[in-house]
Design a protein that fits this description.
The protein is α+β, with helices and mostly antiparallel strands and about 300 residues long. The chain is built from eight helices and 16 strands. Helix 3 packs parallel to helix 4.
Length: about 300
């Protein structure tokens, strides 16, 4: 199964390149970010992609927006918008035993507090899904370079946005929930891999960029993956697609923490960020754990 995440930086501006790309690569699951369009504004040639069900989640005004496209070969997809969504930044699809969460994190330039609160909500939402035993795959532009190796030295400035400790601690928290960064899983020592480059200064040609786009999956799924790579040659956007190939699930990771607790298994998990710490031992957290509570299913704007 091929899973792709790609910040297209405006689907209307990228329509022709996107159409050519998806016909050439035919991923099983495709997550787009920053589509910058309401569903009614999606160009007709790509609104309904043959062989896929699609959900476009965007607003008018040319800002933010995400979409998920699922191959019909995987069966029926159930789309929903998680309860913490704001500014059309989060979309979810459940299909083929997977729960795919697609995210476009705020940059934080206008409101840094908004970014940290958004990432904190994401961590707790993924925690709830994992607690329920979901096979979660988290895709998207997280607007965080997790390690110094994910930023070209020429672009690194101390305390720079997207590299601050409290931002990076949110990625650490996702790792603490058992999610693996699939690119780093396959390329742990690559210090020259980036997924975004500024338009100025010939940055892409010189490979001076940041790695801020991710596919994260539980260890059991990561172990089935054969590769994960950044398709740098696709340069129609300032971001390049990140692709991963995973093998059959075979119920990987389907034993939920809730089931383990009911069966008497001893589990301890501590999630630490600069804004919150959660510790759990043999008992569920006090807060409600159903991630799908108040998360409506979507029946509109889904195209086939």
């Amino acid at each position: 199964m091929k899973i792709v995440t790609w910040n297209v930086n405006g689907i209307r501006a990228r329509a022709t390149a996107f159409e050519h790309w998806i016909q050439a690569h035919r991923p099983d699951i495709l997550c787009l970010q920053e589509i910058k369009a309401h569903p009614d504004q999606i160009p007709a040639g790509i609104r309904d992609i043959r062989g896929y069900t699609s959900h476009w989640h965007g607003a008018r005004g040319g800002y933010s927006g995400v979409s998920i496209h699922v191959s019909e070969s995987l069966g029926e997809a159930e789309y929903s918008v998680p309860h913490f969504d704001e500014e059309t930044r989060v979309l979810q699809a459940r299909v083929g035993g997977l729960t795919v969460v697609n995210v476009y994190t705020p940059l934080g330039q206008k409101s840094y507090r908004q970014k940290i609160e958004f990432l904190g909500s994401l961590v707790h939402y993924i925690d709830a899904l994992r607690y329920e035993g979901e096979n979660v795959i988290l895709c998207g532009d997280l607007n965080v370079a997790h390690r110094d190796a994910d930023v070209h030295p020429e672009m690194y400035v101390e305390d720079m946005l997207c590299t601050r400790p409290d931002e990076r601690s949110m990625i650490d928290a996702l790792h603490a929930l058992g999610l693996k960064d699939l690119f780093r899983y396959h390329h742990p020592d690559d210090r020259h891999a980036y997924s975004w480059w500024p338009y100025y200064g010939g940055a892409r040609a010189r490979n001076v960029g940041w790695r801020i786009d991710y596919i994260l999956a539980p260890t059991a799924i990561a172990e089935t993956s054969t590769r994960c790579w950044i398709q740098r040659e696709e340069s129609s956007s300032d971001h390049s697609p990140v692709l991963a190939e995973i093998g059959p699930l075979n119920n990987a990771g389907k034993t939920s923490l809730k089931t383990a607790l009911k069966s008497g298994g001893k589990t301890r998990k501590k999630i630490t960020t600069n804004t919150a710490t959660t510790t759990r031992e043999n008992t569920p957290p006090e807060t409600p754990r159903n991630a799908h509570e108040n998360t409506p299913k979507i029946t509109s704007r889904v195209t086939r």
